[in-house]
Amino acid sequence: MHTSLPESKEVSVSVIVPVYNVYEWLDTCLDSIINQTFTDFEVLLINDGSTDGSFDKCHEWGKRDNRIKVISKKNEGPSIARNYGIEHAKGKYLVFIDADDWVDSTYLQKLYDAVTVGNASIAECDVYRFNNEAQEKTYRCCSGSMGLKYTLEEHMKYGYTAIWKCMIKRSLLIKYNIRFPDCHSEARAVYPLILAVSGKVENVNEGLYYYRKFRSGSLSESPRINNGDEDAIGLLAFDHLIRGFEVCGLYKQYERLLEEIIKYKLSDLLAGLFYRRSGEAYSCLAERYYRYVIEKFPNSDSFYYITVGGYNLNRILAHMNVLHNPYTRFNFSSVISLMHPIPKTVKLIHSNKYREIMIKRDIESSFWNIILHHPVKYIFMDFIEERFDILKYADGYITKSDALDGADIDLKQYQLLKRNSLECTKLWKDSVRKFIEKVNALIPECKVVIVQNYLSEEVGDAYQKEYFKNIDEIRNTNRILKQYYNWVSQHFKEVILIDFEACKFYYTDKKYEYGAIPSHLNEIANRQIAKKIEGVLNYDN
């Protein structure tokens, strides 16, 4: 049994846990909290009108450990629950833990040491993201890229906008009257402002928080209906963010950065909602986002573009200061398949919904339908996916990508074309020629921009790196890609080619969350390449 804390005593840390219908996960969460190596804390369980037995379980825990206090209220959502916690907390520092997540036993101790020793108002740790469906976890570094720390402004833009990885001085929130708004994406409404008013953030470079994603009934999967925001997730949050900077007298100082933050985070929201909403609902949402950006930042450039190439090309373009719409992406597609759709239905299932959508687009060659229905200014391409062999099926072609290899697909008879064969090379050149001719005929004002991406030969961080074990295979593939880029350069002068082979950090991040493989670069390189693209296009002028 833990030692009782006097009711009036100020504690070092208040742990605020909103609770709403999380009966199945609450024990795991609270067990991880009460068994912390750091002991000078209180736990405020804010029961937000639960109907599944969570309220009774909260009281059971309260009887087991008198550091736990239960506050019950009607259901108003996690933001109001967290604000209740702020008002009732006695701790000098606050942490916010979601009731379906859990924390490492040293979570409080290490964050407390970081924030106090560093004389900061906020400290944060790295995160494990636990896929509740696949029962797998991935690591998310929150302090920077490649072992290099973010600057404060980089942290405001690129930092993982989750409030539960943070320990925050309560007086900071009180002084600047920072509260969570009652809307979706509420953490995005306050996180950059908290960083701005704090002036610095201390980091614990360890995964101490376990975030459970893809669990049924979560607000991420089934957003709560409130304030009309369910039809435009995030916009009320960004309204709140802008007002917060205005009230604190910081808007003019950070206006340009706020524009970049809002575009970057709206793009991130679109990426998450792309395969969760119906086509019509998603299209309406994306249009609202575009209108919002134009309304808030009327002097900012905003345009549609289409991506054809590897997934890392998405990551590069994400750093350009425009809104990024995954609906206009074509990953895992080759130019051959774009020009030769399969004229019959192919049954396909993939465990990854995004990959399933992209493979179906490759098979159907829906590129031309999409490009005709959007005022596309640029087509951004790389040839990374051109490293894959091609399948000829039913008078059409399919890219035999790594995504396709992981799919359950019904192909009874097909012909394999090896990428390095003369037949495939001839077909590729003919397809590129027809592709550019068709683009010029359909949308002559659209520019084709080819980003000369290659497979990374090395993997590491900012301080050390090593060659991939299959370096010979990578170099053979890159020689083919180099020939492709050179051929396009010689035959199509209207195409814009972006070359950046001299990029210092052109290699793979060994800690990349989705796999340290040669087709992925690191975020430092991605930002540098995006900046070069912006400079070449000069679209801001």
What are the SSEs and their pairings?
Elements (H helix, E strand, L loop, with lengths): L12 E7 L3 H12 L6 E8 L5 H11 L3 E6 L4 H11 L4 E4 L5 E2 L3 H11 L4 E10 L4 E5 L3 E2 L2 E2 L2 H7 L7 E4 H6 L15 H8 L3 E12 L21 H13 L3 H23 L5 H18 L7 E6 L1 H7 L11 E3 L3 H5 L8 E2 L3 H12 L2 H6 L3 E6 L8 E4 L2 E4 L2 H4 L2 E2 L5 E3 L4 H21 L4 E5 L6 E3 L4 E3 L3 H21 L4 E3 L9 E2 L13 H15 L4
Parallel strand pairs: 1-2, 1-4, 2-3, 6-11, 12-13, 12-15, 15-20, 20-23, 21-24
Antiparallel strand pairs: 4-10, 5-11, 6-7, 6-10, 8-9, 14-18, 16-17, 16-19, 21-22
Helix pairs in contact: 1-2, 5-7, 5-9, 8-9, 9-10, 11-18
Mean pLDDT: 92
- Counted by DSSP, the helix tally is 18
- Our measurement of the CA-to-CA distance between the termini, rounded to an integer number of angstroms, reads 67 Å
Radius of gyration: 25 Å
Shape summary: elongated
Structure overview:
Helix content is 39%, strand content 20%. With 541 residues, the protein is an alpha/beta fold. 41% of the residues are buried. The chain contains 18 helices and 24 strands. Strands 1, 2, 3, 4, 5, 6, 7, 10 and 11 form a 9-stranded mixed β-sheet that branches. A 5-stranded parallel β-sheet has the order 13-12-15-20-23. The chain is elongated and about 80 Å long. β21 and β22 (465-467) form a beta hairpin. The N and C termini lie far apart (67 Å).
